[in-house]
Amino acid sequence: FIDPAHVPGTSNPEPGGFTSKEAITMLRELSIQNEIVLIDFVEYSPLMDTRRLSSANCINRLMRAVLAGMAARRQGVTDPKYVAPELLSHK
Known about the structure:
Layout lengths: L19 H14 L20 H21 L10 H4 L3
């Protein structure tokens, strides 16, 4: 589902897939809008990750996006484009 240019360490590449930024945004929005019970990241192969764990870093960001969306949902956030006010202030 993510283009191999962004996640090279996969045993089953998906040419023309989403960028890592698009995937992170998509998973965060989905986890705010829906109650997530389980998420599984498959097809990761560390031996094929030619760029020093760039795939592992992307998967880490994807997991954190889902957890952030789940936490926001538990706090009552329903807007998938929600940004915390603390992040918008430049003090």
